[in-house]
Amino acid sequence: MQKLNINELTNIDYDFSVDGTAAMYLATNPHNNRTGILKQNDCMIGVFGEDRRELLASTILNLCGVPCAEIELCIDDENNDYCFSYNVLKENQEHKSLNYDDNLDSKPNNQEKFEAYFEYLFASILTLPGITKLEYEKIRKRILEIHFMDLIIDHYDRKADNMKIIYDKSTNSYLEPVAYDYGTAFIPNAIQTNGIFRYFNNNDVMEYLINNYLSELKEVITSVRNNLTDEALKQILSKEEYNKIYPNEIYEQIKSRISQMNSILLNEQKETQYEEQKVM
Fold first, then answer.
1. Whose CA, among 22, 119, 155, 213, lies 20 to 30 Å from 142?
2. Residue 135 in 3-state DSSP?
């Protein structure tokens, strides 16, 4: 399939407020008239293929029912890689940022630190003017699902500014975040990222989430089990665009995280609770 050349993009807006060091500008793809952000992730953390990793992350999250920005790979005239991250906002929608505890970085790297992180994050949702109980519960659930999938795909760059809540001005309602910004996914040792998980062992955080939020994670756990099968992963990773990002290693990496998830459910005697909640 022929890739989109960045010189084809129209309505380029350099003044548009864009998050992330890899983001370049807002533009329109003339082939489908959809807007998005042009990004060049490669070399941001010294590992090849970040744009392709972002595409792969988007594919896997959407497959598991956690909405993620659609990604299209692009090139320039020198065949350098870029990615076009399609806008997650619809007409009359805007992002609302969550607050981050500025004192968190100075706290000891123990369980209390990521407990405080989630507590502060959830409290931040409640500061949104006029938010309803149902909206809060849906947003909280989505945030937990996004963080859980971060652990499945070894993505450690999650922070408040890349999981923004959506506010719909036409209905005066708050909607769940749509995930985006996955250039550092599938890199287990991505210590140069800024997310909270960089401080901790993957297994420890996954165990904490399963032990404390299983009822809200049961759907995404089921989806991971049903959709990230051996056959499905091999089919996805066999595509040409992933040839250069060590697909066999990524396959083993994801399978290892799924096994880790299953072991935690079994070892913590959560499997019975999971099965009971799944049928409720």
1. 22
2. helix
Q: What share of the chain is helix, strand, coil (3-state, %, to 5)?
A: 45, 15, 40
Decide if 224 contacts 65 (C-beta within 8 A): no
Q: How confident is the model over 222-265, as pLDDT tens digits?
A: 999 999 999 999 999 999 999 989 999 999 999 999 999 999 99
| Burial call 68-87: b when 16+ CB within 10 Å, e when fewer | bbbbbbbbeeeeebbbbbbb
Instruction: Write down the pTM of the prediction.
Output: 0.92
> What tokens does 239 get?
């595509």
Which positions ≥6 away from 91 have C-beta within 8 Å? 170
d(C-alpha 260, C-alpha 257), whole Å: 5
Identify whether the C-beta of residue 260 lies closer than 8 Å to the C-beta of residue 202.
yes
- Domains, the chain, with CATH or none: 4-86 (3.30.200), 93-278 (1.10.1070)
Q: Return d(Cα 87, Cα 70) in angstroms, integer.
A: 8
User: Which strands form 93-96's sheet, in the order they lie side by side?
Assistant: 93-96, 165-168, 173-175
Q: Render pLDDT for 96-128 as a digit per residue (tens, 0 to 9).
A: 998 877 777 777 777 888 888 899 999 999 999
Taking CA atoms, 149 is separated from 58, 61, 77, 145, 256, in Å, by 11, 7, 35, 6, 14
